[in-house]
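Human:
Class, as today's exercise, you are to examine the entry below, and be ready to discuss the fold:
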Amino acid sequence: MYHTIRVAAYEPDPLHGPWREEMRVLRLGEDLHAELTRMHAEANKGSARPDRLPVRRLNSLLRAMAPGVMATGRNAGTDGGLPWLYAREAVPPQVLAPVIGTWAAGMYREDDDTEGADLEDRLRSEDPAEAVRLPDWETEAVDLTETVTSPGGTAEPAARLYGLLPEWVAFRLAARTFRTGGSTLHFRVESSGNGARLVSWPPQRYESRGRTWYYSACLSITVHTVPFAPRFRVHVSAQVRRWATRLEVRPHQLGGTTVLLDAPLPWPGGPDRSHRLMVNTLGYDRRAKQPAWRHHSPAPLVPELDIVRNYPDPTELFTHPERWINGCGDVAAGIVHHPSNGPHQVGPGLMPRERADLDAWVEEGLRPLLTRVPDLTRVTRSNTPSLLPRSGAGREPGVREAQLALQRRAALARALDGRPLEVEVLWQSPQTRAALLAQLPKLIGLPAGERAGAAGDDTWRWEGEGVEIRVHARPAGPLADALPVSRERGRPRAVRLAEAVEGRCRLVADRSAPRPGGASLVIAEIAGKERFAAVPDSDPKHALRIAWARQGRLSQFVNLPDDTDGSLEHRARWTWLDAFRQLGAISPPAHRVGAGIPGDLQYAALWLVRHTRKGPTRYPAHRLVAVRVRPGEGPGAIEGWDAERAEWVPYPKLLLMLSRAEGPVAEPAEEPVAEEPAEGSGEGVAAARPGVERHRQRETERQIRALLFQLRDRPTLLLADAANLRQCWPALRNGALARDLLGFGTEPAQRHTVYGDGLRTVLVRDANAREEVAEWYAHDARGRVGFAEGVWGTADPESRVFASTASTPHTVAKLPKGLMKLVPTAQGRTAPGKTAWNPGQLEVTVLCCLSEKALADSGRGGDTPDRPAEWATLTHQLRYHGDYPPLARPLPLHLARLAGQYVLPLAGPAR
């Protein structure tokens, strides 16, 4: 058993002091900014924000083609006085002028680019009457460890470091060679929206099934804060980057895939090649009916700067990706693989040994400027709640499953509360129908069902110990067909989809009706979403969920046997288990934390559903979901918050209510504008229009305060995912947190006991798409590395931040911990084909508990204070349930998040 875990995170070394770098800084300046703004307004007369320069493509072009440029500042397109370029050395005008001129010409249509092309000459001109002056470079000493400490004790880096520091770290590491197993890897820098990446280049090769598959090591570098930590952190996570060599999709199915371009620099007298790979997006142009560069890709502009070399045409790259990844001349391009583009024989992920080797290489490269954060040690041996023991020595085979079946049946009886359960199974394959009928009695410990209908009526019935279930099986027919969505491009996409949904709802109403007198559930077999990819929005899943919810029926879906991995028996089992969850027939096992947890504790969880116009119904929605769990109670053990009536309702009723509820829903015109990413927190706060954002925030916080009042009757553990909720509860930002205080709006934060004498609040956070929580691996004094589950923390007994790690799936646990994929050994030539995985770390922050100070402030100084580690342990144990592998989040939060699947607003007249 490992007793220590190490996280791949680094912080400024206090023994080293500030990390100052002499940088050259360039601002657009008033003259150039004004001229570019005028040109942009003229070229885009219908633009809603003509004053906001679209500099993202220009920034990408400069980072890749201008030697010495390290990073670009944010919001320079709106303010010419802000820092725009950070460089090791000034970029000469003979480089800067053609890059800016080429970009400016690209703002105009092909038949109207005269003025844009003329800008380069004006930037070079010495005639004061014609010249547009390039601003002068300035020298600035930038402290890459500049920090401000929040009132709550959280160290926050200066705003520009979120973009600048990852680039600087990436270039520092890219200057070094990674050596392992007698081989070497060389890295190139890839800029990303949240930081920077290192990609080993050229790619590695793996021969399998008569083909060559290409892959690289990839290190993501991001800057983050940790609640109450005295120093901010740099996270470095390791993955396998796979490259596509054959796109098994048609061009019109190409939604948008990343392409990295490797090209020489076209400037004489400098380095031959940049240390960067240029980031582009390859998609499908529906007007031109062919692949095209999209999303501010700089690739279309590069041939204008370098007329000597051949650069990949989008159609040619789509057709022959392997030719370009091996290089045509001295230009190469790699299409990043995505599962939607077909299978890949290189498996994702790295095992702990290889991850540890990369981590040690990073640590050596960052010393002495940044130092590794201290290792974490176990805070408890009570890793799991009271789960049934696995079958093993001294236990009869099947005993555990029989006991679980009894528990499920009892939970189902409590949830149904004497009502019969009517289930309609709509099948497309007889195998699926048979598997569903076979798995149900096994899961709840009842004998095989009996036919209950007349001849030809495929109805089955089970009854026993408070449970009565009737299953009606019939072919799905046209209900599972693709939605016939109108292709009229003159009307909003959301409105056309809403009309198709209404049509499917009418078809459902004609072909089925709710059976009165009990709980009602539909299980439908439909094709996988890949089958509907050729026609956008044609997947009928959400339309069917809406249709059945209008009839008061819950819905669960299972894919066709050919459209998914895993055995049919396994998938049928999970279909029923998720159906039981929707019925509320689930509760957390008894914890094993200790006497510090009140016996009558209830759990409450908050989840914010945020749909944009890319959401399931192409219509934006914004809704707070709250779930309450009272272990050991009757049918109402799992409930949801009805904000309109200000009351708790059974979980199944919450789901149906969410499918019908309107809002708060933001109008499409008020959605966030996709421009430059917001500066500051590095925590992914979306930039919506200020008025809409303030309204959302006030409404969400009002609902939270209202439901907290409803939880005052007993001790409560409030669970929230900080990354999910902080957009509309800004007091959950790391820099706004303070121990044992809750803040709302602009009011000063108050003692949390104001909202309930027995209230405790725990925030959780995972890595998410921004790598907010660092990767980890277990290790010991003898140099062994591996996996470990448990709750981890520092030696400080007053610490409020912990790590929760769960066990690994059995498929990964069987792989050797020392498996090397990046440089396979002779004994492991098939190693690249293995799928590796490291369980994610769930950060657990005990924000509010009854600490000694909190008790004293509330006049209860004689009471025994809480131990934060116990509440972190309880949160960790809530990830475990006998029917599931460890959950990504505690069970109450898991229930709240999945309830969001029923938030399906429709646009236009269909609403």
